[in-house]
Amino acid sequence: MTKTDLRKELLLLLLFVAPLIYMGVIWRNIPDVFGQAVEPVQQQIKTKEDFLLLMIFVFFTNALMYFLFRYLPRTDDESVSDPELMHREYYKVRFVIQIFLSAIAFIVLFMVQTSHTYAMERWAFIGIGLLITGVGLYLKGLKPNNYVGVRTPWTLRDPEIWKKTHMMASSLWTAVGIVLIAGAFFMSLITGVFVIFVASFILPILPYIYSFRLANEDKG
Predicted confidence band at 194 (pLDDT cuts at 50, 70, 90)? Predict the structure, then answer.
C-alpha cells in the first residue's frame, strides 16, 4: 500500500484547514454588501453570500485534490524499483498542489479583508485552471508507479495502457484547465462553480473508463 508519512500528512492537513481558520477569524469583519466601485458586469461578488459561494467552490476544489491524491486506488510497492524515491515524489506533488490551492484561498480572503474585491472570482477561476493545466502537463510524461497518476488495475498491469491512458488524461486535464482559464473572463460565478463540479467528476472518471476500454478492446 502507499505509505503514509504521519508528519507530512498532518502538514498537508494544516495547509488544507489554514484558509478555513483564517476565514473564520475575519468572517465577522466581512461586510454584508461589497462596495460597487466597478461596473456590475465586472464585479459579480456583491454580497457576503456570493463570497461564501465562491469560497465553497475554492474549498471544494481543495478537498477534491486532497482526497484524489490521498485515497484513490493504492497498491502494493512490489513493482516499484525505488519505492523511497517514488514516496518522496508522491508527497512533493501533493505539497505543491496543496500550497497552490491554499495560496489561492488566502489571496481571495486577503482581497476581501482589505476591501480589494475587484473580480476576485475571476482570479480564483484562473488559479484553479492553472493548477488543472499544470497537473495535465505533469501527467503526460509520468512513468508507471504506484503513487501518482491514473493508477487502475489495467494501467498498473500494462505499461502500454499506462502510457496511452496518461496521454489521454493529460489532454483532458489540460483542455479543462485551459477552458476554465479562458472562461474566467466571461463566466458568471454560478456557471464557473457548475463547471468545476462537472469537471471534478469527469477528470478522474473518464481516464479510468478509458483504461478499462483499452484493456478490454480485444474482447469487443
Answer: confident
